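Why does this matter for the project? Reviewers at the last site visit asked to see concrete outputs rather than summary tables. In response, this paragraph embeds two records directly. Each consists of the residue sequence and, immediately after it, the corresponding structure tokens. Nothing has been edited or filtered.
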Amino acid sequence: MDTQSRALQSIREFLQSKTSYDVLPVSFKIVMLDTKLTLKGTLLTLLQNGIISAPLWDSNQSRFAGLLSSQDFMNVAQYLIDRPEKAEEINTITLDQLAEIESTIGARQIETSRIHPFKSLYETCQHIVESKAHRVPLIDTDPETGREIVVSVLTQYRVLRFVALNCKETQDLKIPIKDLNLATRENLHTATMDTQLADVVGAFSKYGVSCVPIVDENNKLLNVYEAYDVMTLIKGNGFSDFSLSIGKALMRRPQDFEGVITCSEHDSVAHIMETIRRSRVLRLCMVDEEGKLLGLVTLVDILNYIMFG
């Protein structure tokens, strides 16, 4: 067995020895949203807390009702792009009406899967890879009442950072990512500065992507536009500015944007894991020496390789 294979085996054994609960910090807070909240109030709550996703709680039945994410807001945006006459209704639409809206446009509805917090971390990673979920709720049950308890939400990033911090074997994953076929190179959804925001929202809603690279006429990477950017734009301007170009939409982006994280096809998984250890990473844009976009490396690509590569 070569060094890379031994490292992968050690990391998998580590994942099997830990539970999902082990990944959680000593102190944390969780924001839960009642399904009776309006979309407008929900959006403000999410952005005020610096998050794009939260568990839903059905207070009538006292149970977990799914995981709201930026994808759901992209679906609502697409619904209104197709039906501008419905724009006034958005202020009164509640979270428990989302299923009807998403069904109308044929979109995937709110995610309801969950994992028990004391399941092995390996099982949780398996679930994330197979479902391609960006995050998974950890749901326990009160032994006395039988009621569900939302413990936390585990993200791909949190899992990979936990591995990067606790498994020195990640340093041995030195094969270049181009030799592992890790990146998505084909059928990439990209945009230019002149692309209409409505077209990007369409890609977010239809294909479930959360980020679109922005390139110039030579395919040189200029920026990225994220589902989170759409949410902040909606907060300030409502569901009405979808005719904007991406260039103009970027001018309204909050100044705290963390920037675009890139890698080259010659970088290794070890290099990417070190980047994850040091920075908050959601995906990496793979570029060549001239800065031209070659592909995207997502966190689920990395997790899939660790689990099954």
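We now turn to the second protein, recorded in exactly the same manner.
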Amino acid sequence: MANQASIEQKLKMIKRGLTEVNGEDSIRQLLEEGKSPKGYWATAPTGRPHLAYFVPLLKLADFVKAGADVTVLFCDLYAFLVNYKHSWETVGHRTTYYKHIVGAVLRTLGVPENTVHFVEGSSYELSKEFSLDNYKLSVLTDVNEVKETGSEYRNPGKLSVLFCPGLPALAEEYLNCDFQFGGEDQAGLFAFNERFLPQLGYRKRAHLMNPMVPGLQGTKMSSSVPDSKIEFLEDPESVRHKIYNSSCEDGKVSGNGLLSLLKLVVIPFNQNRLESVGAIDGDKGVFDVTSENGDVKSYTSYDDLEADFAAGKISSGHLKEATVKAVNAMLDPLRKQYEESKEWQAVDKLAYPED
């Protein structure tokens, strides 16, 4: 039986920053039995990853700290079926690109090497057993139920799209996981899994969800909306341009894309950095703002920063300049790793030849 204080500490780390946890009791039971919960995060190698990906990757760092057995599932077959405009070969190159960027981010976050497993969906999805299970699942499911699981399935241009929900659903069984983790936009898929996997004789898993990062213009940060996002390898001047053109009105908190970026990405990143060097919560700042007269105020929490901005103590211009510095400091290690990797640069050209 594990120490109760240790169990609560691990659970707190696992749940930190999440908006929803379904099946917490099953995770707690594993911890009480002294076992390491096995979980995975799925990502489809489609467009270039951007700053919003820091949210799930920071959570993977939390899971590792909590002693979980963590896997990143690169959904290559899913990406091919749902984003059918690109060839299977291109998807393969994008999968390799994603492995490079995810690995680089995890290293930047201080996640120890070999503590996160990388798995390609196609490594097991093309097996006879998996294919049969996916066909069984298709027999159980109505077309309208598939369309309700997510926005990308509502108006499918190809039949292939309707087969997509079964891939991440069955991954829970084929990866032998205890929980799946994803954004709030995965709620429909998670509900699909909870309903249909037991009908195939498989156990129901826990599902954990993180908040979605609004775009810099107030919409969802998305690869399909260039001005809404900052890519991991964005050059410093482009970062400055996008941040200075972001939605950030003096004193206004609601609908402020810049504040959302700070709350969900920048400050958690800096908190993780301090934790990695053994700093105690609250003893060092996680975000610095320089005022008109050159004074620097170091904030130890997002709430204090938001309060000062709402009260007019920080102008939007000063907040934007501070954010430019913080974001470029986050991205510098990724840019450096890219510049040092000829293999990564080569696959970049193959994965995104149109860029």
